[in-house]
Specification:
It is a single chain. The chain has nine helices and no strands. By secondary structure, the chain is mostly helical. Helix 3 runs antiparallel to helix 4. The model has no long low-confidence stretch (mean pLDDT about 80).
Length: about 160
Amino acid sequence: MNRPFELTVTHAKRFERFFGWPVLIIFLISFIVMLRTQATWVIPVMLVVSMGLAYKGYMEYRVIRHFAEHQAVARVLRYRLIDCWISAISLFALFIPMYVNEDAFILIGGIVALWGLTKSYREKKWEERIHAHQSRLPTYEEVLERREDVWNYHQK
């Protein structure tokens, strides 16, 4: 196994342990408190959560791109990365107008909701495009859980 890939997987595992459940719990508690008190400190908390989501998408791209055997697969992986960044930015942007203008909040909330509702459709189409060029592409979770087997399968 090559060294940069090993370091990428190690960093991804470390990030998953740090950012996974603790930040989700902080987000939920912050959201409940914000709804009760209208605290403006939730905006920086959402910025941190959004940055974490964007970084997680970047780490997923860095890990999976090593297994892409075709240029079209790499392009679809970049599209997925851009989709993740748009989701993170829209999550952060949703909370700013909540304190400034309720009409803008409703408009941005509708856009974020439509983006979220179409996520499964986009994922399905991207999977079809990936499988058209490469029949077996391991998932991010497969690579993190048992990287030796997946890496050896890729090298065959």
